[in-house]
Write a structure and sequence with these properties.
The complex is a heterodimer. By secondary structure, chain A is an alpha/beta fold. Chain A contains nine helices and ten strands. Chain A folds into two domains: 136 residues, 3-Layer(aba) Sandwich (Rossmann fold); 151 residues, Rossmann fold (3-Layer(aba) Sandwich). A ten-stranded mixed β-sheet of chain A has the order 3-2-1-4-5-10-9-6-7-8, sandwiched between helices. In chain A, 50% of the residues are buried. In chain B, a hairpin with a 2-residue loop joins β2 and β3. By secondary structure, chain B is mostly helical. Chain B has a single domain, classed as Amino acid/polyamine transporter I. Classes of the chains: A alpha/beta, B mainly alpha. The interface between A and B is large, with 52 and 65 residues. β3 of chain A pairs parallel with β1 of chain B, so a sheet runs across the interface.
């Protein structure tokens, strides 16, 4: 499998490489660092005309990519590519599609003044149009050890089951413990009933997904029987999926209240508005992203996982 | 498991050596690019008045003659651009031909010319910005705001900062926008000319003057000084045209498109210049009072004065055309000095900081900001010292273009001296044309420089009894010499020819 890493020679790019290395170490994955340099429009009418800036930019891009490759440890295979395009996000998507990448890894934060609160424009556009899952490294992500736990943000909206499929399979392939996270924003009154309902719903869906995986003839699920959790945690050495319902006055508070492992990653689905391509990353996911201390993978709607 | 790091340059799109998409520009596109680089609406409003003040009714003759040195030099520019494609252009070529010292000054001249034009573009944009506000709200007082010095300087600095920011972010004018801007400019200029002639025909012109064949006779200009000043101003009005000649793989037919585009562009430009020049002279005459084109009050920005009387309520279109074209040029012109400085930083001729490229936007970060600061500084100084900043900067600009273009043309002659006599084509394009063009430009430069010492020269501003145009032009060149000597002390390797060698 290949991951395309959207590399820029700044903190954002370094975050992306670190996360990509961490992800690659869980799985037999090679990395493709892609640096996008702009394709000038002749209609910009640069005057006096010159023809050499491109060479200087290329040279610089090579040096930047060498620095990027130097961040990748020896046990991970990595290649570097220079691509040209008007839009960085679009060019990364094209590279990912062309290389048949299983994911696109980028740094989420803006390098601008308001970096704590905003997603960078490239990340923003990727999250609204990428046909492959997008992994977002949080600001200042330094960890390169393998991922230790997979969480899956889980709701009641259409598409949740498909996402759960992806989560269960990913956890199984990587031998990672899976945690289902249901985030509840309770404005004002506490409502234990809602939390219970969320838990029951999660358990139900997990059971459904688990049994459909079995019905598909998944061989390694053969010995599993009984509880919903058991059905999904198919590989013998992987613990049963955990279901957590986090509450807070806001989504941000709910995210804060959860305990996150350093090596954790959160998988979430794209917005139900994704088909309209208007918002791929829904408002809830957007708010989760701002509060989240760990990386996040946003899975496109109706995404079918690659099998390695 | 690990592989040797390697970088793959993906070739998924075919690119020209300039990093532009190959085969993306057709003939009309190339003409649009050429016209937009010339920015005729801006150029005419800035240069028509100062040229009339030099040559009077012989404006059409000078506009025609002024094209000749531009054409000759541009032919040499094209040869150099093909033989040595380089971001440093004049700097690199002159260094390769004449060594580091002249090369450095060639680069300085190019940077100075683009910095000066940046400050002038911003100033013109600001004037028409306030004029347009006045026209929108039918309140002439708003237009007067641009004459309040602190407000004018503040607004100009804001315009420069905005254009710098856009350029730093790597944002570009797209094809669609450029087509609209160019079409709009040509349409409005045509409208202006037709309205002016209509006034003449109806007897409502300010000073109806019959067109005479003598207007087209360059030898009727009263003195060589006026002639030289006129030609160096008309170099400015064609500055931008040569972009069509240097187009290459980005055109759909590299064999034919650039040549045809250059021809069509110059025809379009000459027709529009002639029409507007004749219309202006017929409508307003060259009298020194009222709306006369000879009135020094009108000469810094002719359309700001004449568009209203000529076009009536539609004068707002002229404001819009000039504002939009100068704003677009402001943004794209930032790219050039930034890239030249970047190349000079890259070759260690100035601090390597200038060679920095923004990792986020992949634009020359330090150099772009430096260009903005220089343009802002130049404007503040000129505006404070001069009675008529626009006029004086345009005259100084004409001089600076003659300087760096002259050096570039002679660099072509010298660089190709070994191959100049290998056939008629090489002789003409690599030797004769650039030699004649370069000599003409340098003669114009020297003559204008000497004349401009007179405190009455140009708009009549002076510093310590010496004409301001001379102080500006020579000051900038002398400043270049000083900076060059400092650089020699700090980074001698470039000046010892260790970085860029003479060919």
């Amino acid at each position: 499998m290949r991951y395309v890493v959207g590399y820029t020679a700044n903190a954002r790019g370094h975050d992306a490489v670190h996360l990509a290395v961490a992800l690659a170490r869980n799985h037999d994955v090679s990395l493709d660092l892609v640096l996008v340099i702009p394709e000038d429009s002749p209609f910009n009418a640069v005057y006096p005309p010159e023809a050499g800036y491109n060479d200087i930019l290329n040279e610089q891009a090579q040096r930047w990519l060498d620095e990027g490759l130097a961040l990748v440890p020896d046990d991970v295979t990595a290649r570097a590519h220079i691509r040209r395009g008007d839009s960085e996000a679009q060019t990364l998507i094209e590279a990912a599609v062309e290389m048949d990448a299983a994911a696109l890894v980028i740094g989420a934060t803006n390098s601008g003044l308001l970096k704590r609160f905003t997603i960078g424009s490239v990340a923003g556009s990727l999250l609204h149009s990428s046909p492959v899952p997008v992994a977002l490294a949080p600001h200042g992500y330094h960890r390169t050890e393998p991922i230790t736990r997979l969480s899956c943000g889980f709701g009641t909206r259409p598409g949740a089951d498909e996402l759960l499929d992806v989560a269960v399979e990913s956890a199984r392939d990587r031998g990672l413990p899976l945690r289902l996270v249901s985030l509840l924003a309770l404005d004002g009154g506490n409502s234990p009933g809602l939390a219970d309902a969320a838990w029951v719903h999660a358990a139900d869906r997990l059971a459904a997904v688990g049994s459909s995986a079995r019905a598909d003839g998944s061989t390694d699920a053969a010995g599993a029987a009984g509880s919903a959790a058991d059905a999904a945690g198919s590989a013998a050495d992987v613990p049963e999926p955990e279901i957590v319902v986090a509450q807070g006055r806001t989504i941000e508070e709910a995210v804060d209240r959860l305990d996150w492992e350093d090596g954790e990653i959160l998988l979430i689905g794209s917005s139900r508005l994704a088909q309209q391509r208007a918002t791929f990353l829904g408002t809830t996911a957007n708010r989760i992203l701002r509060a989240l201390p760990v990386p996040m993978i946003v899975v496109p709607r109706d995404y079918k996982r690659q099998n390695s | 498991m690990s592989t040797a790091p390697k970088t793959v340059q993906s070739k998924e799109t075919s690119l020209s050596e300039k990093g532009l998409k190959a085969g993306s520009v057709g003939l009309i596109g190339a003409v649009v690019i050429g016209v937009s680089c010339i920015a005729p609406a801006y150029t005419l409003t800035a240069a028509l008045g100062p040229t009339v003040s030099e040559v009077g009714v012989h404006l059409p003759a000078i506009f025609l003659v002024g094209f000749i040195p531009m054409l000759l030099v541009a032919l040499g520019y094209r040869e150099l651009n093909n033989a040595m494609p380089d971001a440093g252009t004049s700097f690199t070529w002159a260094t390769r031909a004449f060594g580091p010292w002249i090369g450095w000054m060639g680069g300085w001249g190019l940077i100075a010319a683009t910095i000066i034009v940046l400050s002038n573009l911003a100033a013109v944009a600001v004037d028409f910005f306030y004029l347009m506000l006045a026209q929108i709200f039918s309140n002439p007082e708003l237009g007067e705001l641009s004459k309040i010095l602190p407000l004018n300087i503040a607004t100009t600095l804001v315009f420069i900062a905005l254009a710098c920011w856009i350029s730093y972010r790597g944002m570009e004018t797209t094809k669609g926008v450029q087509y609209v801007l160019v079409a709009f400019q040509l349409l409005v200029l045509g409208w202006f000319a037709v309205s002016a002639f209509a006034h003449v025909a109806n007897g409502t012109a300010f000073d109806a003057t019959a067109i005479s064949p003598d207007w087209f006779n360059p030898f009727a200009v009263d003195s060589f000084s006026s002639f030289a000043a006129g030609v160096s101003l008309s170099i400015f009005i064609y500055w931008g045209w040569d972009v069509t000649l240097t187009m290459n793989e980005e055109t759909k037919n590299p064999e034919k498109t650039p040549g045809r585009a250059a021809t069509i562009t110059v025809l379009v430009i000459v027709i529009i210049y002639m029409t507007v020049a004749l219309a202006t002279l017929s409508f307003a005459g060259v009298g020194e009072t009222g709306l006369g084109a000879g009135n020094p009050e009108n000469q810094s920005s002719i359309f700001a004065v004449l568009a209203g009387p000529v076009m009536g309520p539609f004068a707002i279109l002229m404001s819009l055309a000039i504002l939009s074209s100068s704003a677009a040029s402001l943004q794209s012109t930032f790219v050039s000095p930034a890239r030249t400085m970047l190349a000079m930083g890259h070759y260690r001729a100035i601090s390597p900081k200038f060679g920095k490229i923004s990792p986020t936007y992949k634009s020359p970060s330090f150099a772009t900001i430096a260009a903005a600061i220089a343009a802002a500084g130049f404007y503040v100084i000129t505006r404070t010292v001069s009675e008529n900043a626009l006029w004086d900067t345009i005259t100084a600009l004409g001089m600076m273009i003659c300087f760096y273009y002259g050096i570039t043309a002679l660099a072509c002659v010298w660089y190709f001296r070994a191959e100049a006599f290998r056939g008629a084509r090489a002789f003409f394009f690599k030797f004769l044309a650039p030699l004649v063009g370069g000599v003409i430009l340098l003669v114009m430069f020297v003559k204008t420089a000497m004349d401009s010492m007179d405190p009455e020269y140009g708009s009549g501003s002076s510093v310590g009894g010496v004409g301001l145009v001379f102080v500006l032009g020579m000051g900038v060149i002398l400043l270049g010499v000083v900076v060059m000597l400092v650089m020699y002390r700090l980074r001698p390797e470039f000046f010892k020819g260790k970085v860029l060698t003479r060919a």
